[in-house]
Amino acid sequence: MQVGATLDSVELLVEEQVLDPLFLNKTNVMDVAQNLSTAKNNEIQFLTGMLGMAEEQNSLIRARVESLKQGMQDASGIADAVHKLRCRSVSYGSCDSNAIHDA
After folding, report:
1. Model confidence, pTM
2. Is 88 exposed, middle or buried (0-12, 13-18, 19+ CB in 10 A)?
């Protein structure tokens, strides 16, 4: 008895689908919506990954710039010291002992 009722229900559903011209379109719209949602989620994940890589690269570049700035400051200090030593060696004979301590 339940088998007969189930078969009748299936038969009614099939007949309804055949008679409803929008049934396939409804299914297609749902498929399209699902596919669009999946594509957007994939795009969001991709862009999030790209953003993370860009932030990491930006951080590395900032660290490199800071390192170069520090190197320039160190080089400037060395250049000043070399200049003072050259001045001392050129004027060694005419300098007094206080000139050496001032540098």
Report:
1. 0.46
2. middle
